[in-house]
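Researcher: Here's the sequence for the chain we discussed earlier.
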Amino acid sequence: MTDTELKTLLTQQKEHLDVLLSLLRQEISAISNRNIAELESSSQAKVRCLEQLQSLDQQVAEHPALPEYKEAEWFKHAVELLGQQLDSCKQQNEVNRLALEQSQINLQQFKNELLQLHGKSGLTYNRKGKPAVDSKGKGFKA
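Model: Thanks. This is the structure I predict for it:
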C-alpha cells in the first residue's frame, strides 16, 4: 500500500463521517416529528455507515508503513480533521439522545394524564411505581 492509498482511505473515512453527521441530523428531525419509519431507516443507515468506518479504520491500522506515516504532517493533519468530524458526530448523537429522552418523558406524562382522566377512581400504581388503571372492576355475582 502506498501513501496515496492511505490518503484515499483517510478521505473515505472523512466522507463516511460526513454521511454519518448528515444521518444524525436527519435523525433529530425524525425524533422531533415522531416519524418512526424515518427513524428506523436512519438507524439502519447509521449502522451500515459505522460498519464501513470500522472497516476503513482497520485497513488504516493494518497499513505496513503506518508508523512511518504517523510522523508525517499531512497524516497528523488528516487525523486531526477526522477527530474533529468524529467529535461533531458525537455531539450530535448526544443531542439526539437527549431529545429522544425528552420525547419519552413527554409521552409518559401524556400517558399518565390520560390514565388519570380515564379512571380517577381506578387509578393505582404497578409494582414499579408507575401509574396504571385498575380495570378489574367490581364484578357481578349471579
